[in-house]
Amino acid sequence: AAFCDALHDAVEGRLGEITETSQRARYPLRSIHAERYISSHAALVGDAAHQIHPLAGQGVNLGFRDVGALIDMVASQLERGRPISNEQGLRAYERTRRGDNLLMQKSMEGFNHLFSNDNSLLKLLRNSGLAATQRLPLIKEGFMQHALGTSGEIPSLCKRAL
Fold it and tell me: What biological process terms from GO does the record include (predicted)?
């Protein structure tokens, strides 16, 4: 009953009265990244290739870009009359996606460390950095474009969704 009341208060009653919940579970928030995205005749995409801290909800966006890049690679191989399992094409997919995914993963780990730390020096750096970003529109725009996935090499399928 105490948990139901706390949950009701946390969502400000928007879910109505909460009378029952199932057994609660918890899962560790962790980042993992595959050493290789490809092997003979196979490619990893999305959470099979990488998992990032859900701090900014970027995991699904990275997965969409992985799928889009893989579709682009498959289309390119078919246009050239090559098998879709062509090693050169698979390596190109891996090169295209690995850097973007690692950059986002490390960025989220950095943000998590900055915002979950009580160290006064880190707080000062964080607040100064945020204030500077607000005053420098080009930097702010760059961060936003990266977070939205609208910078760098954008798969054609993802471009259509923009």
Answer: ubiquinone biosynthetic process
Reading the block at residue 118, the tokens are 């009580």
Per-residue pLDDT tens over the stretch 69-82: 999 999 999 999 99
Residue whose C-alpha is closest to residue 159's, from 150, 141, 94, 93:
150
Chain center to CA of 14: 29
Tokens of 88: 């050169």
Please state, in angstroms and rounded to a whole number, the distance separating the CA atoms of residues 26 and 12: 23
**Nearest alpha-carbon partner for 101 in 144, 131, 148, 63:** 63
Instruction: Give 102's contacts (C-beta < 8 A, 6+ positions apart).
Output: 33, 50
With left for phi above 0 and alpha for psi between -120 and 50, is residue 106 left, alpha or beta? alpha
Rg of the chain over Cα atoms, rounded to whole angstroms, equals 21
Each residue's pLDDT tens digit, 23-46: 888 888 788 999 999 998 999 999
Domains of the chain: 2-161 (3.50.50.60)
